[in-house]
């Protein structure tokens, strides 16, 4: 029996099909309620943090400016994934055009790289605050912070921008079904009926250059922070210094652990459970924007007090 493989390129077809959690199609409506609540809390939480930092002059410090950058990237990540995730689970609409798919994966990868860069800047901020507290404000001035943020954005744009153009040159098989309900480079390029070695090498290059390098520099920052803290004679001051890093450490773990696991699975875990891959993919995209506002509002006394004043909690 002769098998026929059909191909399509951008001129023949313009649709990919998105996929929800395998095996749970009957409860998609109930799952959509969970996702809706996660998006509501993520968007409201990050928006509240941005609003409070903007209106309170006492929070116009480097630490909170970097926190506002993190909140912006988390907001963007929620907005980038929300349309397709809710369309699949809430409306059972699985189709997405190629151009929309390429645009979504561009913004998802751009915001992931930007968040990694912001976490690196926040590690640098904690290092300066602990190593040189007397020069902290003079080193991290507002113009300098603005330049650092701009460099991070330009770096992310420069490495992510080629990805959609690299994907557009491919022919795609008729089985154009993605294994997630959003578009990412690793999934889209696997559907190509062409040689994807260039894309695969470039994707690995981005992972090592951006995520790997940032994580290494964050680790080195904390090695130097720990070295500085251990030289402090007072035990109470040592604990107080380390306590200022707890929120950032939680944000780093929430971001890097699932994304590292998913990257390993995409490249080496061919026999891994599809359900596990799908759940892990939702964790790395949805959990950090949800939990970062909670962690920082609980650990930062000034931010926590300002939130309480803004939204009184009845007792």
TrEMBL record:
Annotated TM spans: 27-53, 65-90, 102-124, 145-167, 201-226, 238-259, 279-298
Any GO molecular function: olfactory receptor activity
Subcellular localization(s) per the UniProt record: Cell membrane; Membrane
PROSITE patterns reported in the protein's UniProt record: G_PROTEIN_RECEP_F1_1 (PS00237), G_PROTEIN_RECEP_F1_2 (PS50262)
GO biological process terms, semicolon-separated: cellular response to lipid
Cell membrane in keyword set: yes
Cellular component per GO, a single term: plasma membrane
Pfam families to which the protein is assigned, alphabetical: 7tm_4 (PF13853)
Bilayer topology annotation: Multi-pass membrane protein
InterPro entries: GPCR_Rhodpsn, GPCR_Rhodpsn_7TM, Olfact_rcpt, OR51/52/56-like
Keywords of the record: Cell membrane, G-protein coupled receptor, Membrane, Olfaction, Receptor, Sensory transduction, Transducer, Transmembrane, Transmembrane helix
Keyword Transmembrane helix: yes
CDD domains per the UniProt record, alphabetical: 7tmA_OR51-like
Domain G-protein coupled receptors family 1 profile: 45-296
Domain of life of the organism encoding this protein: Eukaryota
Gene3D superfamilies recorded: Rhodopsin 7-helix transmembrane proteins
Protein family: Belongs to the G-protein coupled receptor 1 family.
Protein name: Olfactory receptor
Origin species: Gopherus evgoodei (Goodes thornscrub tortoise)
